[in-house]
Automatic annotation (TrEMBL):
Domain of life assignment: Bacteria
Taxonomic source organism: Caldimonas mangrovi
Coiled coil regions, renumbered to chain: none
Official protein name in the record: Pyridoxamine 5'-phosphate oxidase family protein
Upper taxonomic lineage: Bacteria, Pseudomonadati, Pseudomonadota, Betaproteobacteria, Burkholderiales
Domain Pyridoxamine 5'-phosphate oxidase N-terminal, first and last residues per copy: 34-152
Amino acid sequence: MDASHVVHELSQLESLFGAVGEPSLRKQVAHLHPVYRPMIAASPFAVLTTVGPDGLDASPRGDAPGFVRVKDDKTLLLPERRGNNRIDSLRNILHDPRVGLLFLIPGVGETLRVNGKARISVDPALLEALAVDGAPPKCVLEITVEEVFFQCARAVLRSKLWTALPDSVLAQLPSPGTVLAALTDDQVDGPQYDQGLRERQRATLY
């Protein structure tokens, strides 16, 4: 790549985009304003971003709408349900408490962005309060909120995110078993892995 085409300075970057619109500045607040709380209550899915000694991580989190609880105007509670036990995000938080959350709401173009700092709690009362079907989370992230703002719908509109892809496209995607078989030189039996996958997932949601 021609080095002259690489942006190195903030002034160069800012000249590409121009001035920030006043609404884009005014929508950012340092607390969970009442106008933003319905978006969190309606969201069944969020992406959690963390940073650790080995780099960055972005991890999906999802449950029934409102699974991330608003404790007060500066605190969110994110239950950690069963998963693959890699705990990449949790390892990172022990190293660096900074986190980001991107909340999505099916059918809605706007997303909600929250930045803050997290700590990992195993308070029995908190685990019990966030149990589902009698199964408590493994732990709870208590997130101290520092920035909150909504993201406009352009990215969702351009991507047609909430429009299902054609079957012809979906048919070209590799299954989880196919991926594992390819990455392990067939040490994992792909078809066998896929055969019981949906039932294993259903039985171990909580």
